[in-house]
Amino acid sequence: MAECKEIMYFDLRTVHDHFDRSLLDEDDIDIRAYLEAYNELYKFFQLMGSVFSFVSSDLKQKIEILQGLIDKDQENYVTVKKMIEYEKENNLLRKSDFVNGARTLLRLHRGLDFISEFLRQLGELSDSDNTSTCCKDAYNKTLAKHHPWLIRKAAIVAMYTMPSREMLFKKVCGDNVQKNVDALPKMLEITSHVITRTHTVYEVHELHALP
User: Where is the Glycolipid transfer protein domain (predicted)?
Assistant: First the structure.
C-alpha cells in the first residue's frame, strides 16, 4: 500500500523567523536566510494551485538560481551588498552568458512586494469576503508594473476564481488558521523591513532598472 504524502502547509511564523534572521547589521541582508523565508512563501503559491501560476513558476526558478550561486561561491554570495558589489566589480551585470544574482534577486524583491501587499489586504478582510478583489489590487500596485500585457491579462482572469478569505486560509494553513492569522501582523512588519532594506540597497547602486 502506498504511503500517503504529508501535506506541507504554509506557516507565517516560519517566514517571520527567517526574514528576521536575514536582517544583518549595517543595513545588509543574509541571502540564505532570505531564500529560506521565500521557500516557505512559495508553499503558499503551491497550495493555491493554478491561480498563481503566473508568478509561482518564475519565483521557484529564481530561488533555485540564487541557491546555485550560493552553492558555487559562498564567499561572494553571502549578503545582498556583497553580491552586488562583487558582480559590479567583475562586470557580471551585463555579461550575456551569466545569470547574475542582482537581477535574479530583484525579481524576487518585486514578487515579495506583491505577496506582502496581498497578505496585508487579506488580513483586513472578514472571513466571508472574496479575496479576488484585494489580490487584483495588490497585483496592480506591484508586479503588474513589471509584467507584459499578456501575463497581466492572464493573471487577472485567474484571480476571478479565488475563494473567500476563510476558504483561502484553510487551503493554505490546514488546521492552523488562527495561528497564522495571529502571526500575520509581525510577519508583515518584518517583511516590510526586508523590502525597504532591499529597495535601498538597489537604489544606492542604481540597479532598480536592471533589464
Answer: 29-173
- Residue 59: which residues within 8 A CB-CB, separation 6 or more? 38, 42, 45, 107, 108, 111
Retrieve residue 2's grid coordinates: 502506498
Q: Which residue stretches of the chain are H helix?
A: 12-22, 31-48, 53-72, 80-89, 101-123, 132-141, 149-159, 165-173, 177-204
User: pLDDT tens digits for 103-115?
Assistant: 999 999 999 999 9
Strand-pair category, 23-24 with 28-29: antiparallel
Nearest-angstrom CA–CA distance, 85 and 205: 9
Give the pTM: 0.92
Helix or strand or coil: residue 28?
strand
Q: Under a CB-based contact definition with an 8 Å cutoff, are residues 44 and 172 in contact?
A: yes
**For residue 6, what are the CA distances in angstroms to 1, 151, 169, 176?**
15, 32, 18, 15
pLDDT band, residue 47 (cuts 50/70/90): confident
- For domain 12-205, which architecture applies? Orthogonal Bundle (1.10)
The string of pLDDT tens digits covering residues 4-34 is 445 588 899 999 999 999 999 889 999 999 9
For the segment 52-93, what is each residue's pLDDT rounded down to a tens digit? 887 787 888 999 999 999 999 999 999 999 999 999 999 999
d(CA 146, CA 167): 29
* Residue ranges per structural domain of the chain: 12-205
Task: Look up residue 92 and give its three cell numbers.
Answer: 557580471
